[in-house]
Amino acid sequence: MERSLLNIQRQHRKRNTEIRKTTKIIDALDKNVIGRVLLLAWTTKNGHQGLPESNDIPTNNQETKAIDLTHDTDVNYLPNIANLSEEERRDIEIRSRDRYIPLNESNDNDGKSTKEPKEFEPNVESEVRLNKIKENLNKVENEFQNFRGDRKTRDTFYIKTDEIDNIQESIDNRVKRQIMSQMADFSSVKRVEPMVFLDGIRVEEAEKDPKILDDGVPSVLAETKVTLRLFGQGLTPRTVIAFTHDALEYGQPCKFLLKGEYVAKEDSVTPTSALFEFWAPSPIISSKLYICTKNLKPGILPSEDEEKYLHQGTEGWKILATHNKLMPLWVALILILACLTFSALFSGLNLGLMSLDRTELKIISNTGTDQERKYARAIMPVRDHGNYLLCSILLGNVAVNSTFTILLDELTSGLFAVIFSTLSIVLLGEITPQAICSRHGLMIGARSIMVTKAVMALTAPLAFPVSKLLDYFLGEEIGSVYNRERLKELVKVTTDVNDLDKDEVNIISGALELRKKTVSSVMTKMEDVFMLPITSILDFETMSEIIKSGYSRIPVYEGHRGNIVTVLFIKDLAFVDPDDNTPLRTLCQYYQNSCNFVFEDVTLDIMFKQFKEGHKGHMAFVHRINNEGEGRSLL
To answer: Residue 622, exposed/middle/buried by CB under 10 A (0-12, 13-18, 19+)?
Structure first.
């Protein structure tokens, strides 16, 4: 009986001891990731047969040697508990971004403790162990809730009620204040670099604007400087990236990396993004570049770090592509010069050939020099199709100018390409050739007629239908047509450059006005005409006066100057002797030369035709109808 009582008391004391240990552990480690991991590691190892001894958990009375790391939220810190055995330490695991890091002290070849965490890739076994830990955590929490729900059991706790209430404090304050301050006798603090997980990328700066492929992947020009922004988690100032052509799953190690390791740009790292500057590598196997990342340990250079790069996956928003230039530099330069030459030729032909209308070409082919006639005959078959020629030249000019701009943009940056292409096309492709062809368009057009015909043949599918539409709506091209006024003005304005005399210009101008002018505008007034009265005697004095006048036809009047009765021809005086004093009336009656009377509104072309026929002589007297009085007056 006494032995049974002793056994009961011993069991009761053991039960109270377990309750006190449970209270201390739960009070210290509840709602804290590190504490739960320690608790689960111990319970998983011991199969829930009991809790650690009280001296395994630091208390408030123990002196703490922990480093205050509560201010650093960028990395994870995990203390080594000195009181745990090696076997217990090997079972402690944490999960950091889909990977388990056992906190064991591995030994190097010299047998020295490296105190570095050993990392290995996640697998099915690790997932099962994680689920088991979570299941153990739920069991412990349920057991603790049962302890707290039992009033009788709660009375046996050797803690104060306000301490139980303090369990509900915020995790940020309670965990850091209780756990970190109570962890005494640290042997080391190990730093675990977070694993990078990318959510996307964006090209911030590039020498040329990136292209967007069909699957949405940005493509930058190879061998150019690129600034890339990575978005995601786990990015730190020690994050390093590299590129590979291998398409792997997320988290797998990158084996075949391209040359180049790039550290995050200083002062560009935020909790969710970071900038990286690098020279875009040339595509070797594929144009797509997959990103591999790792976080360096403090004080280690990328070339000295032995950690493997981990692949970020093959999603489209995590891929960068590169593309080479369209062609080698020397080929691009040759094509640029060729495009600029053809641009100048088409621009000059547009002005030179189109300014030579068919009328002018016909004139040149009939009246020009032998060389000009040859040039005109070569151009006329092409020039007869004016709209077709115009459409072909313009299409060719636009095509070579566009090609020139594209090739120049591939070689240089956008601003320089715009400025250089504009100046080149304006100065060398427009102004200079048009200035030359405006003066020598006939020669240049004839010598480049084969190029013009080739361009017309190449652009026929588009240029020919458009030309027919222009002919239908605008009408067929006729050429330059000069009426009388324009032709007369043309003769006048070209007096300084042609070889016509002033009299010839006047004759030509007057001839062009025959149909418009009347006799009243060109006649000589009666008071200015040299005339003889019919009563005159053909003596020496009269004969001398007739010869001095210089006229071949002399009107003869009777009574007054307005009454013209006949005309004396100078040839009629050939057989007249001045000494005979022959009367003028006798001579006029003998020859009986009739007078030609016309009205004032008769045009000069009709009058000129009568003079040319000669039936009525080459002198006419103009009658004007006098509407105010009777009869008519002779002018």
So the answer is: buried
The two tokens of residue 17 are: 């001891």
pTM of the model: 0.50
8 Å CB contact between 19 and 157: yes
Alpha-carbon span 520 to 522, nearest angstrom: 6
**Most confident range, picked from 51-65, 84-98, 230-244, 478-492:** 230-244
Dihedral angle at the C-alpha atoms of 54, 56, 60, 63, nearest 10 degrees?
140
Q: Which of 308, 299, 314, 269 is nearest to 99 (CA)?
A: 308
Burial class (CB in 10 A: 0-12, 13-18, 19+), 450: exposed
- Residues 323, 326, 328: CA angle, nearest 5 degrees: 110
| Mean pLDDT of the chain, nearest integer | 75
Asked if pLDDT for residue 121 goes beyond 60, the answer is: no
Q: How far apart are CA 488 and CA 511, in angstroms?
A: 9
Q: If you classify domain 519-623 with CATH, what class do you get?
A: alpha beta
Contacts of 41 (CB under 8 A, 6+ apart): 88, 91, 92, 93
pLDDT computed for residue 511 by the predictor: 81
Q: Which fold has domain 197-323?
A: Immunoglobulin-like (2.60.40)
Task: Determine the distance from the C-alpha atom of residue 361 to the mean position of all C-alpha atoms in its chain, rounded to a whole number.
Answer: 43
Under 8 Å between Cβ of 213 and 321 = yes
- 310-347: burial string, b at 16+ Cβ within 10 Å, e else: bbbbeeeebbbbbbebeeeeeebeebbeebbebbbbbb
Question: Which residues are within 8 A (CB) of 307 and not within 5 positions of it... i.e. 6 or more apart?
Answer: 294, 296, 297
Strand-pairing partners, residue 561, are: none
Average pLDDT over residues 230-252: 92
Give the mean pLDDT of 379-405.
92
Q: Using one digit for the tens of pLDDT, what is the confidence trace for 172-187?
A: 444 444 444 444 333 3
128 pLDDT band, cuts 50/70/90, is: low
Residues 615-624 have pLDDT tens digits of 778 888 888 8
Q: What is the pLDDT of residue 185?
A: 38
- Retrieve residue 115's tokens: 């105190």
**Boundaries of every domain in the chain:** 197-323, 329-474, 484-514, 519-623
List the helix and strand counts (H, then E) for the chain.
21, 20
